[in-house]
Design brief:
The protein is an alpha/beta fold. The chain has 15 helices and 14 strands. Bound molecules: pyridoxal-5'-phosphate (PLP).
Protein backbone atom coordinates (compact mmCIF):
# COMPACT_ATOMS: atom_id res chain seq x y z
CA UNK A 1 0.00 0.00 0.00
CA UNK A 2 1.18 3.50 -0.88
CA UNK A 3 0.31 5.24 2.37
CA UNK A 4 1.02 8.75 1.21
CA UNK A 5 -1.19 8.35 -1.85
CA UNK A 6 -3.94 7.03 0.37
CA UNK A 7 -3.98 10.24 2.40
CA UNK A 8 -3.77 12.36 -0.73
CA UNK A 9 -6.94 10.61 -1.97
CA UNK A 10 -8.68 11.27 1.34
CA UNK A 11 -7.88 14.97 0.97
CA UNK A 12 -8.98 15.03 -2.67
CA UNK A 13 -12.34 13.65 -1.60
CA UNK A 14 -12.82 16.69 0.66
CA UNK A 15 -12.05 19.01 -2.26
CA UNK A 16 -14.64 17.19 -4.38
CA UNK A 17 -17.23 17.63 -1.63
CA UNK A 18 -16.23 21.30 -1.27
CA UNK A 19 -15.48 20.90 2.40
CA UNK A 20 -11.69 21.01 2.48
CA UNK A 21 -10.84 23.20 5.45
CA UNK A 22 -8.81 26.36 5.04
CA UNK A 23 -7.81 28.31 8.14
CA UNK A 24 -7.45 32.07 8.09
CA UNK A 25 -4.12 33.42 9.38
CA UNK A 26 -5.28 36.08 11.84
CA UNK A 27 -3.66 38.34 14.37
CA UNK A 28 -5.99 39.89 16.91
CA UNK A 29 -4.89 43.17 18.46
CA UNK A 30 -6.25 44.01 21.94
CA UNK A 31 -8.18 47.27 21.88
CA UNK A 32 -8.91 46.86 18.18
CA UNK A 33 -11.44 43.99 18.23
CA UNK A 34 -13.40 42.93 16.23
CA UNK A 35 -10.74 43.90 13.69
CA UNK A 36 -7.78 41.63 13.07
CA UNK A 37 -4.83 41.48 10.71
CA UNK A 38 -5.30 38.88 7.98
CA UNK A 39 -2.38 37.38 6.06
CA UNK A 40 -2.42 35.27 2.90
CA UNK A 41 0.84 34.97 0.94
CA UNK A 42 1.96 38.52 0.28
CA UNK A 43 -1.39 39.98 1.31
CA UNK A 44 -1.63 41.63 4.72
CA UNK A 45 -4.73 43.63 5.59
CA UNK A 46 -7.17 44.56 8.33
CA UNK A 47 -10.43 42.63 8.34
CA UNK A 48 -13.55 42.69 10.51
CA UNK A 49 -14.14 39.34 12.18
CA UNK A 50 -17.83 38.41 12.29
CA UNK A 51 -17.50 34.84 13.47
CA UNK A 52 -15.53 34.86 16.70
CA UNK A 53 -16.62 32.91 19.78
CA UNK A 54 -14.96 35.54 21.96
CA UNK A 55 -18.54 36.78 22.27
CA UNK A 56 -17.86 39.59 24.74
CA UNK A 57 -14.30 40.33 23.60
CA UNK A 58 -13.02 39.35 27.04
CA UNK A 59 -9.83 38.24 25.27
CA UNK A 60 -8.91 41.93 25.10
CA UNK A 61 -10.21 42.84 28.57
CA UNK A 62 -7.41 44.68 30.36
CA UNK A 63 -8.01 42.93 33.71
CA UNK A 64 -7.84 39.53 32.07
CA UNK A 65 -4.64 40.34 30.16
CA UNK A 66 -3.05 41.80 33.29
CA UNK A 67 -3.90 38.69 35.33
CA UNK A 68 -2.44 36.49 32.60
CA UNK A 69 0.88 38.34 32.41
CA UNK A 70 1.16 38.99 36.14
CA UNK A 71 0.72 35.34 37.07
CA UNK A 72 2.97 34.18 34.21
CA UNK A 73 5.73 36.35 35.67
CA UNK A 74 4.97 35.19 39.19
CA UNK A 75 4.39 31.45 38.61
CA UNK A 76 5.92 30.78 35.19
CA UNK A 77 4.57 29.42 31.93
CA UNK A 78 3.43 25.83 32.35
CA UNK A 79 1.80 23.83 35.13
CA UNK A 80 4.69 21.40 35.29
CA UNK A 81 2.70 18.20 35.55
CA UNK A 82 -0.59 16.38 35.57
CA UNK A 83 -3.09 17.18 38.31
CA UNK A 84 -1.93 14.11 40.23
CA UNK A 85 1.80 14.65 39.81
CA UNK A 86 2.73 18.21 40.87
CA UNK A 87 0.52 20.12 38.40
CA UNK A 88 -2.38 21.11 40.69
CA UNK A 89 -1.44 24.76 40.95
CA UNK A 90 -2.99 27.24 43.35
CA UNK A 91 -4.63 29.41 40.68
CA UNK A 92 -6.28 26.39 39.11
CA UNK A 93 -7.76 25.33 42.45
CA UNK A 94 -8.97 28.89 42.97
CA UNK A 95 -10.62 28.74 39.53
CA UNK A 96 -12.46 25.54 40.48
CA UNK A 97 -13.79 27.16 43.65
CA UNK A 98 -14.96 30.13 41.60
CA UNK A 99 -16.77 27.91 39.08
CA UNK A 100 -18.61 25.90 41.73
CA UNK A 101 -19.74 29.18 43.28
CA UNK A 102 -20.79 30.64 39.93
CA UNK A 103 -23.17 27.75 39.31
CA UNK A 104 -24.10 27.20 42.98
CA UNK A 105 -22.86 23.63 42.94
CA UNK A 106 -20.81 21.70 45.48
CA UNK A 107 -17.79 21.10 43.31
CA UNK A 108 -16.16 21.64 39.94
CA UNK A 109 -13.44 20.16 37.78
CA UNK A 110 -11.39 22.00 35.14
CA UNK A 111 -10.15 20.35 31.93
CA UNK A 112 -7.81 21.58 29.21
CA UNK A 113 -10.77 22.32 26.94
CA UNK A 114 -14.54 22.20 26.78
CA UNK A 115 -14.20 19.36 24.29
CA UNK A 116 -12.20 17.28 26.75
CA UNK A 117 -14.60 18.21 29.56
CA UNK A 118 -17.51 16.68 27.61
CA UNK A 119 -15.65 13.68 26.28
CA UNK A 120 -14.08 12.80 29.63
CA UNK A 121 -17.08 13.46 31.87
CA UNK A 122 -19.77 11.85 29.74
CA UNK A 123 -17.72 8.73 29.06
CA UNK A 124 -16.76 8.34 32.74
CA UNK A 125 -20.28 8.95 34.10
CA UNK A 126 -22.08 6.71 31.59
CA UNK A 127 -19.50 3.96 32.00
CA UNK A 128 -19.77 4.00 35.79
CA UNK A 129 -23.57 3.77 35.76
CA UNK A 130 -24.64 0.16 35.28
CA UNK A 131 -26.41 -0.48 31.94
CA UNK A 132 -26.85 3.25 31.43
CA UNK A 133 -29.18 4.49 28.68
CA UNK A 134 -28.15 7.86 27.24
CA UNK A 135 -30.79 10.17 25.77
CA UNK A 136 -29.05 12.66 23.54
CA UNK A 137 -30.41 15.60 21.52
CA UNK A 138 -29.78 15.07 17.81
CA UNK A 139 -27.95 18.40 17.50
CA UNK A 140 -25.49 17.78 20.34
CA UNK A 141 -21.89 18.84 19.76
CA UNK A 142 -19.16 16.51 18.45
CA UNK A 143 -17.49 16.41 21.89
CA UNK A 144 -20.70 15.03 23.43
CA UNK A 145 -21.01 12.44 20.66
CA UNK A 146 -17.41 11.34 21.30
CA UNK A 147 -18.11 11.05 25.02
CA UNK A 148 -21.16 8.90 24.37
CA UNK A 149 -19.20 6.73 21.93
CA UNK A 150 -16.37 6.15 24.39
CA UNK A 151 -18.74 5.31 27.23
CA UNK A 152 -19.94 2.26 25.31
CA UNK A 153 -23.44 2.93 26.68
CA UNK A 154 -26.62 2.41 24.68
CA UNK A 155 -28.00 5.66 23.29
CA UNK A 156 -31.31 7.02 22.06
CA UNK A 157 -31.13 10.16 19.94
CA UNK A 158 -34.20 12.34 20.41
CA UNK A 159 -35.36 14.92 17.86
CA UNK A 160 -33.96 18.36 18.52
CA UNK A 161 -35.65 20.03 21.52
CA UNK A 162 -38.55 17.60 21.09
CA UNK A 163 -40.09 16.86 24.51
CA UNK A 164 -42.66 14.38 23.20
CA UNK A 165 -39.96 12.31 21.55
CA UNK A 166 -37.73 12.50 24.63
CA UNK A 167 -40.59 11.33 26.82
CA UNK A 168 -41.33 8.49 24.42
CA UNK A 169 -37.72 7.32 24.75
CA UNK A 170 -37.82 7.64 28.56
CA UNK A 171 -41.10 5.76 28.76
CA UNK A 172 -39.78 2.83 26.74
CA UNK A 173 -36.84 2.27 29.10
CA UNK A 174 -37.28 0.12 32.22
CA UNK A 175 -38.18 2.38 35.20
CA UNK A 176 -35.26 1.00 37.22
CA UNK A 177 -32.71 1.52 34.44
CA UNK A 178 -30.03 4.25 34.83
CA UNK A 179 -30.75 7.10 32.40
CA UNK A 180 -28.73 10.15 31.44
CA UNK A 181 -30.25 13.00 29.41
CA UNK A 182 -27.63 15.08 27.59
CA UNK A 183 -28.44 18.36 25.89
CA UNK A 184 -27.20 21.90 25.33
CA UNK A 185 -28.70 25.17 26.52
CA UNK A 186 -27.83 27.35 23.51
CA UNK A 187 -27.32 25.39 20.31
CA UNK A 188 -24.35 26.97 18.63
CA UNK A 189 -25.24 26.44 15.00
CA UNK A 190 -28.96 27.39 15.24
CA UNK A 191 -28.96 29.91 18.05
CA UNK A 192 -32.00 28.38 19.73
CA UNK A 193 -32.47 27.43 23.40
CA UNK A 194 -33.50 24.09 24.91
CA UNK A 195 -36.69 23.83 27.04
CA UNK A 196 -34.54 23.23 30.13
CA UNK A 197 -37.30 23.33 32.73
CA UNK A 198 -39.49 20.88 30.83
CA UNK A 199 -36.54 18.53 30.31
CA UNK A 200 -35.77 18.72 34.05
CA UNK A 201 -39.44 17.91 34.75
CA UNK A 202 -39.24 14.84 32.52
CA UNK A 203 -35.97 13.79 34.15
CA UNK A 204 -37.64 14.00 37.54
CA UNK A 205 -40.70 12.07 36.38
CA UNK A 206 -38.60 9.22 34.96
CA UNK A 207 -35.74 9.44 37.47
CA UNK A 208 -33.07 10.34 34.91
CA UNK A 209 -29.83 12.25 35.45
CA UNK A 210 -29.34 15.47 33.49
CA UNK A 211 -26.20 16.87 31.82
CA UNK A 212 -26.27 20.25 30.10
CA UNK A 213 -23.65 21.86 27.85
CA UNK A 214 -23.74 25.62 28.54
CA UNK A 215 -20.66 26.39 26.46
CA UNK A 216 -22.39 29.05 24.35
CA UNK A 217 -24.22 30.61 27.29
CA UNK A 218 -21.77 30.97 30.18
CA UNK A 219 -20.61 34.53 30.65
CA UNK A 220 -23.43 35.79 28.44
CA UNK A 221 -26.71 34.90 30.17
CA UNK A 222 -27.84 35.27 33.77
CA UNK A 223 -27.11 38.11 36.19
CA UNK A 224 -23.88 36.32 37.19
CA UNK A 225 -23.03 35.02 33.74
CA UNK A 226 -23.86 31.48 34.85
CA UNK A 227 -25.68 30.73 31.59
CA UNK A 228 -29.32 30.00 30.80
CA UNK A 229 -29.64 27.85 33.96
CA UNK A 230 -28.55 30.94 35.92
CA UNK A 231 -30.92 33.26 34.01
CA UNK A 232 -33.89 30.93 34.52
CA UNK A 233 -32.95 29.80 38.06
CA UNK A 234 -32.68 26.18 36.97
CA UNK A 235 -29.14 25.23 37.98
CA UNK A 236 -30.41 23.24 40.97
CA UNK A 237 -32.58 21.14 38.69
CA UNK A 238 -29.68 19.95 36.52
CA UNK A 239 -27.17 17.40 37.82
CA UNK A 240 -24.14 18.37 35.76
CA UNK A 241 -23.47 21.70 34.05
CA UNK A 242 -20.61 21.82 31.59
CA UNK A 243 -19.02 25.00 30.28
CA UNK A 244 -15.97 26.49 28.61
CA UNK A 245 -13.47 29.16 29.56
CA UNK A 246 -12.55 29.56 25.89
CA UNK A 247 -15.54 31.39 24.47
CA UNK A 248 -17.24 34.23 26.37
CA UNK A 249 -14.57 34.08 29.08
CA UNK A 250 -11.88 34.70 26.47
CA UNK A 251 -9.26 32.30 27.91
CA UNK A 252 -8.83 28.53 27.54
CA UNK A 253 -10.15 25.41 29.25
CA UNK A 254 -13.41 23.62 30.02
CA UNK A 255 -15.19 22.42 33.12
CA UNK A 256 -18.04 20.60 34.79
CA UNK A 257 -19.85 21.45 38.04
CA UNK A 258 -22.11 19.20 40.10
CA UNK A 259 -22.40 17.33 43.36
CA UNK A 260 -19.20 16.49 45.25
CA UNK A 261 -19.61 12.78 44.57
CA UNK A 262 -20.15 13.07 40.82
CA UNK A 263 -17.22 15.45 40.40
CA UNK A 264 -15.01 13.27 42.57
CA UNK A 265 -15.89 10.20 40.50
CA UNK A 266 -14.99 11.93 37.21
CA UNK A 267 -11.78 13.23 38.81
CA UNK A 268 -10.72 9.70 39.74
CA UNK A 269 -12.05 7.71 36.77
CA UNK A 270 -11.63 9.84 33.62
CA UNK A 271 -8.30 9.15 31.83
CA UNK A 272 -8.68 12.33 29.74
CA UNK A 273 -8.48 14.24 33.01
CA UNK A 274 -5.90 12.12 34.83
CA UNK A 275 -3.23 11.59 32.19
CA UNK A 276 -2.76 15.10 30.86
CA UNK A 277 -0.95 18.20 32.04
CA UNK A 278 -2.93 20.64 34.14
CA UNK A 279 -3.98 24.09 32.94
CA UNK A 280 -1.15 26.61 33.56
CA UNK A 281 -1.60 29.05 36.48
CA UNK A 282 -1.60 32.15 34.28
CA UNK A 283 -4.45 30.85 32.13
CA UNK A 284 -6.38 29.77 35.21
CA UNK A 285 -5.92 33.24 36.71
CA UNK A 286 -7.06 34.89 33.47
CA UNK A 287 -10.19 32.73 33.44
CA UNK A 288 -10.96 33.45 37.12
CA UNK A 289 -10.55 37.17 36.45
CA UNK A 290 -12.96 37.00 33.49
CA UNK A 291 -15.54 35.07 35.53
CA UNK A 292 -15.34 37.48 38.47
CA UNK A 293 -15.51 40.47 36.16
CA UNK A 294 -18.61 39.16 34.38
CA UNK A 295 -20.26 38.22 37.67
CA UNK A 296 -20.79 41.89 38.38
CA UNK A 297 -20.40 43.77 35.11
CA UNK A 298 -23.61 43.75 33.09
CA UNK A 299 -22.56 46.26 30.45
CA UNK A 300 -20.90 43.75 28.07
CA UNK A 301 -23.96 41.48 28.17
CA UNK A 302 -26.39 44.36 27.64
CA UNK A 303 -24.38 45.85 24.78
CA UNK A 304 -23.99 42.43 23.16
CA UNK A 305 -27.77 41.92 23.11
CA UNK A 306 -28.31 45.45 21.80
CA UNK A 307 -25.91 44.97 18.88
CA UNK A 308 -27.35 41.50 18.19
CA UNK A 309 -30.88 42.93 17.95
CA UNK A 310 -29.59 45.72 15.73
CA UNK A 311 -27.80 43.26 13.43
CA UNK A 312 -30.86 41.02 13.16
CA UNK A 313 -33.13 43.96 12.43
CA UNK A 314 -30.92 45.56 9.78
CA UNK A 315 -30.24 42.26 8.02
CA UNK A 316 -33.90 41.18 8.08
CA UNK A 317 -35.01 44.57 6.73
CA UNK A 318 -32.52 44.15 3.91
CA UNK A 319 -34.08 40.78 3.08
CA UNK A 320 -31.21 38.59 4.29
CA UNK A 321 -32.67 35.13 5.06
CA UNK A 322 -31.77 34.71 8.74
CA UNK A 323 -32.59 31.46 10.50
CA UNK A 324 -34.87 32.00 13.50
CA UNK A 325 -32.62 32.54 16.53
CA UNK A 326 -33.47 33.68 20.03
CA UNK A 327 -29.86 34.26 21.05
CA UNK A 328 -26.69 36.13 20.11
CA UNK A 329 -25.95 33.63 17.31
CA UNK A 330 -27.21 34.66 13.85
CA UNK A 331 -27.11 31.90 11.22
CA UNK A 332 -27.83 32.51 7.55
CA UNK A 333 -28.84 29.35 5.73
CA UNK A 334 -27.10 28.89 2.36
CA UNK A 335 -27.76 25.15 1.85
CA UNK A 336 -24.86 24.64 -0.53
CA UNK A 337 -21.21 24.13 0.48
CA UNK A 338 -19.83 25.61 -2.73
CA UNK A 339 -21.90 28.80 -2.61
CA UNK A 340 -21.18 29.07 1.12
CA UNK A 341 -17.45 28.98 0.46
CA UNK A 342 -17.66 31.32 -2.54
CA UNK A 343 -19.66 33.87 -0.54
CA UNK A 344 -17.20 33.91 2.36
CA UNK A 345 -14.17 34.07 0.02
CA UNK A 346 -15.76 37.01 -1.76
CA UNK A 347 -16.65 38.78 1.49
CA UNK A 348 -13.05 38.49 2.61
CA UNK A 349 -11.41 39.53 -0.68
CA UNK A 350 -13.82 42.28 -1.69
CA UNK A 351 -15.19 43.58 1.61
CA UNK A 352 -12.53 42.69 4.20
CA UNK A 353 -15.17 40.83 6.18
CA UNK A 354 -14.24 37.48 7.63
CA UNK A 355 -17.02 34.92 8.18
CA UNK A 356 -15.96 31.27 8.16
CA UNK A 357 -18.30 29.02 6.11
CA UNK A 358 -19.94 26.30 8.22
CA UNK A 359 -20.07 23.03 6.34
CA UNK A 360 -20.57 19.31 6.97
CA UNK A 361 -19.91 17.66 9.42
CA UNK A 362 -20.38 20.67 11.70
CA UNK A 363 -23.91 20.93 10.26
CA UNK A 364 -25.81 18.29 8.21
CA UNK A 365 -25.22 18.26 4.44
CA UNK A 366 -27.58 20.66 2.67
CA UNK A 367 -27.71 22.92 5.72
CA UNK A 368 -24.47 24.78 5.08
CA UNK A 369 -24.60 28.25 6.52
CA UNK A 370 -22.87 31.46 7.49
CA UNK A 371 -22.82 31.92 11.24
CA UNK A 372 -22.62 35.53 12.35
CA UNK A 373 -21.67 36.39 15.92
CA UNK A 374 -21.74 40.07 16.82
CA UNK A 375 -19.92 41.31 19.92
CA UNK A 376 -20.40 44.49 21.98
CA UNK A 377 -17.69 46.00 19.79
CA UNK A 378 -19.51 45.53 16.48
CA UNK A 379 -20.88 49.06 16.38
CA UNK A 380 -23.76 50.35 14.23
CA UNK A 381 -21.39 51.43 11.48
CA UNK A 382 -19.85 47.96 11.22
CA UNK A 383 -23.34 46.45 11.08
CA UNK A 384 -24.26 48.75 8.16
CA UNK A 385 -21.07 47.75 6.36
CA UNK A 386 -21.92 44.08 6.91
CA UNK A 387 -25.41 44.54 5.50
CA UNK A 388 -24.12 46.37 2.39
CA UNK A 389 -21.42 43.74 1.88
CA UNK A 390 -23.86 40.84 2.18
CA UNK A 391 -26.28 42.42 -0.31
CA UNK A 392 -23.51 43.17 -2.79
CA UNK A 393 -22.14 39.62 -2.40
CA UNK A 394 -25.59 38.05 -2.81
CA UNK A 395 -26.19 40.09 -5.97
CA UNK A 396 -22.80 39.36 -7.48
CA UNK A 397 -23.02 35.62 -6.83
CA UNK A 398 -26.70 35.47 -7.81
CA UNK A 399 -27.89 34.19 -4.44
CA UNK A 400 -31.59 34.89 -3.96
CA UNK A 401 -32.69 36.99 -1.02
CA UNK A 402 -35.97 36.39 0.78
CA UNK A 403 -38.78 38.34 -0.87
CA UNK A 404 -37.09 38.12 -4.24
CA UNK A 405 -38.34 34.66 -5.08
CA UNK A 406 -40.78 34.74 -7.96
C1 LIG B 1 -16.93 24.77 21.34
C2 LIG B 1 -17.82 23.77 21.96
C3 LIG B 1 -17.33 22.85 22.90
C4 LIG B 1 -15.86 22.72 23.17
O1 LIG B 1 -15.36 23.78 23.92
P1 LIG B 1 -13.82 24.18 23.76
O2 LIG B 1 -13.50 24.84 25.03
O3 LIG B 1 -13.72 25.06 22.56
O4 LIG B 1 -13.07 22.90 23.56
C5 LIG B 1 -18.22 22.05 23.56
N1 LIG B 1 -19.55 22.10 23.31
C6 LIG B 1 -20.05 22.95 22.39
C7 LIG B 1 -21.53 22.98 22.17
C8 LIG B 1 -19.20 23.78 21.68
O5 LIG B 1 -19.70 24.58 20.72
Amino acid sequence: MNYNQFFQKAIEQLHIEKRYRIFADLERIPGDLPRAIFRNGTIKKAVTVWCSNDYLCMGQNIHVIQALSKIAHKNGAGAGGTRNISGSNHHLIELETELAELHRKEASLVFTSGFVANEASISAIARLLPDCLILSDELNHASIIEGIRHSGAEKNIFFHNNLAHLEECLKKAHPKRAKLIIFESVYSMNGDIAPIKAIADLAEKYNAMTYIDEVHAVGIYGMNGGGITDRDHLSQRIDIIQGTLSKAYGALGGYIVGSRNIIDAVRCYAPQFIFTTALPPAIAAAATTAIRYLKTSQKERILLQKQVQMTKKILLNAGVPLMPSTTHIIPILISDPDICKKATDYLLTKHNIYIQPINYPTVPRGQERLRITPTPFHNDHLIELLKDALIETWNTLGIQLRGEES
